[in-house]
Amino acid sequence: MLGLSFLLSGCLLLFLLAPKTTSEALPGPDAIRPLKQAYTQHCGRCHALVDPVYFDKARPIQNYTRRYVQQDLIHEREAQQVVAYIQALSAVRP
């Protein structure tokens, strides 16, 4: 039961239930291809890629990248690239 409360309190359960995608299906124009590759490389090395549409004002990508940096799973520069990709997609989304 304690494990379940940890999952729920950390929003990990919501993250696990988030829609997944593949690197080939990731959205974005050619201009942000390096950021897309960074998202694939950094986020796909430990878990399935989460569809970028999952991240929004209610679930900002920074909440996740911050945790990963604190846990030494990714470096700050890698986190910045991931955040930049999600923000670039937000800028081109209708």
In words, what does this structure look like?
The structure is a single chain. With 94 residues, the protein is mainly α. The protein has five helices and two strands; from the N terminus they run ααβαβαα. The protein has helices at residues 2-9, 12-16, 33-43, 61-70, 76-92; strands spanning 20-21, 49-50. A two-stranded antiparallel ribbon has the order 1-2. α3 packs across α5 (76-92) and α4 runs antiparallel to α5. The chain is globular and about 30 Å long. The model is unreliable at 1-10 (pLDDT under 50).
Short description:
The protein has helices at residues 2-9, 12-16, 33-43, 61-70, 76-92; strands spanning 20-21, 49-50. It has 94 residues and is mostly helical.
Write the layout of secondary structure elements.
Blueprint lengths: L1 H8 L2 H5 L3 E2 L11 H11 L5 E2 L10 H10 L5 H17 L2
Antiparallel strand pairs: 1-2
Helix pairs in contact: 3-5, 4-5
Number of strands: 2
The best one-word shape is globular
How many distinct helices?
5
Mean pLDDT score: 86
**C-alpha-based Rg, rounded:** 13 Å
Unreliable runs, pLDDT <50, ≥5 residues?
Answer: 1-10
Features:
disordered N terminus, 5 helices, 2 strands, two-stranded antiparallel ribbon, 94 residues, 54% helix, mainly alpha, globular
